[in-house]
Amino acid sequence: MVVASSEGWSRPSPNPLTAPTNSASVWREDVFEASVSERSEELVDDLAQQVEDRYGGVAAFNVNRYGTSTWTAPWWVAREDVAFDDCQDRGDVPEGVYDGLEHFAEVPIPALAVPSPGSDGQLTVYSPSSDQLWEFWKARRDEDGWSACWGGRIDDASTSEGWFDGAAGASAAGLAVSAGAVTADEARSGDVAHALSLAIPDVAEAPQLSWPAQRTDGRDPDDEAIPMGQRFRLDPDVDVDSLDLHPVAEAVAVAAQRYGFIVTDSSGAVSVSADTGQEAVSGPDEVDPWREILDGTPSYAVLEDFPWDRLEALPRDWGQPEG
Questions:
Q1: What is the pTM of this model?
Q2: How many structural domains is the chain composed of?
Q3: What are phi and psi of 54, to 5 degrees?
């Protein structure tokens, strides 16, 4: 994301949930030498088959429509309440939206902000001055202001574990979407120093969960199905340089060896999340960073030949603190 100041635009800043200084974040945990689940082969076979069965056997790199749109709010941005849109027919305003945790209250959304253009309409806002991060699902702005179907706020984001309290947030797992998304700056540099959000079609139904997931929308009744929050990593013995991947996929592979994937959502296809880069498009240069980075490769082809069958599954609840 790009930080705006009274003097203009300055250099990119890291997501506070994945910054090297945030030692508490589950997104920064190194899994390179982690133990492997006794069910690893079974879980990896399941995941690889989910990739193989859809869209020509190539997982999606969700950057154009179904990523998240991340915006940085300077201190002077006016705060406003985001209206609750009951698109899921809950019947009333859920606890914590405007009372208690007040997830939808006093949000500093920049004037140029737009959500991701896909049907998820995801929007992320970070306020460095208050160290607060908001994420909204199905966000939209009309003449009456902003509204969203769901979302949440993380306080003290730079020291946060990386999830939302009170069953809030924009992902089905309650984990921060933006923390696991590949940004344009990361893709350009080839350095993705955090775990990656992974959405898959077949997720185990509740109560099956793996920490750090806080909740699930999984519908697969099979007790052996992949649970929300499951961590995978690329086998550390894989020589990434020899795979002949797209440069962005190579960066994903290197991150997958060091930090791994975390299953955060159910989806129509296996997909890796990215930030849409719309803040840069609205900046002074008005340039889509992904156009240059992908260099003519369609986003749906970025992960072609990614070695999903060489992943390893970590034990359920890996990394969960005791007690």
A1: 0.94
A2: 1
A3: -135, 140
